[in-house]
Design a protein that fits this description.
25 strands, alpha/beta, globular
Amino acid sequence: MTVLERFFDRIAARGTEPILYEVRGDQLAPWSGADLRDRIAQIRGWLRERALQAGDRVAWVADNSAAWVALDLAVLAEGLVAVPWYPRQSSRELAQYAEDCDARLIVAGDERLAGLLRAATDRPVTLLADAVGPPVYAPPRPTVPVAPFTLVYTSGTTGTAKGAIVTEANVAAMLPITASALEAMMGSSAPDHRVFHYLPLCFLGSRVVLWTCLWRGNPIALSTQLDQLAQELATARPHYVLNVPLLLERMRARVEAGIAQRASPVRALWAGAHRAAAGSRRWRDRAALAIAGRSLFPAVRKKLGPELRCLLCGSAPLAPETQAWFAHLGLPVYQVYGLTETTAILTMDVPPDAVPGTVGRAIPGVQLRIGDDDELQAQGPNLFPGYWRRPADTAAAFSADGWFRTGDRASLDGGVLRILGRLKSVIVLTSGHKVSPEGVEEVFRAALPTADQVVAFGHQRKALLLVVSGPVSREAVADAVSKYNDDAAHYRRVAAFHLHPEVMNPEGGWITANGKLKRAALEAAFRPTLDALEQR
């Protein structure tokens, strides 16, 4: 049974029972297996009316919804190559993607997106709501396992975005592994896990979560309004959620800010409990942990999510302090590490072990090694065959003996992986010293919990410089810089900083939707500011 055949089998087996939910404020709007099957059939009929050929690329840009899922499955079932795009990407970038993949058809989720696309490209654009044709209930068309199944455009954090080819064989290798891992995390193999998903489905990690649920026949609840995320979490009452570090760190900051407003006995209890959880053997701290474990910690967990059993986290490094903080509350965070080019995953934390600061062990079938410059390299059935129509980039992505080069600096200790930073993001000062910006940024994020982003600069400069965005005072940053510099090696000291009062969001083009910094764009945007700082 192929991946698609299994998806369709599980959808049909749900019958009138929900297979998807759209979360709308305090309401759950169910889509039964029959509902999804019918919508897929309508889109398949519409696609056949377009006279597309097997292997043609169908692109779309839309917010998460059940119709998004139906479109994905319909395109794949017709033997076409699915190319989903991020709905907050600029129209210029989307037009570039359309030309790069030679999209034969583009689908927009709403009139606004359709207007942006039509103004940017001459290729045909259709509204998702209008994708209705004579229903086709035939089995999925046969696939070639090693042919392009979907194209996923990389986030372009260090350069031009590229279309990574993912094959059906890549997906078939991944889904049994993710299904087994999630069952281990939940302690149950029955498809009754309540799953809530808010990250854009166009990203491969998100689709792996979706596809894993379909593989298992497990319903999934999809966010429809990110500005109501707290309400949606309360409505969905999930057992687990896939997160990016940015959200977890903001959740922690909100809780800490709330505790800071409580009476002094509560603040003291909280601080003592966390000191004990971190290893303090003082009797007062251990007593505080025992009391908080029965009263304060459960109250905080209930506020975060009354039925959460664990949190999943990927896409970017999670501060060890944040991972440990959630563990102290009794809410483990299991990290997942991978890239689009590795079908989203290379390593995962294995319950009950989750060591803060590490990202688990290689998933079954994957081999890891440390190459030159401490670069992590990998082999396995989940590795992509290359970038769409970019043979030079594809060749550069692999070592001479065929191992995929992740571009991440890492270490392996007894098989447990620790990510040290990106090779391409390493700052080389004019003194010749090399500094990984991620380590510096992690220190300041912990010291400045109200900051939105902390970005370290300094490549080909005399010293490190910081840009701190969001609601944080100059005094707080100056104090954090002073404390950091007291213990830092001379070449790692921060010479100056700049406060950027606005929050950095994906629409500005400086970070991705997953919270990754687009360092090249940030360097270009802040270059005059950095030049001025350096000349002081």
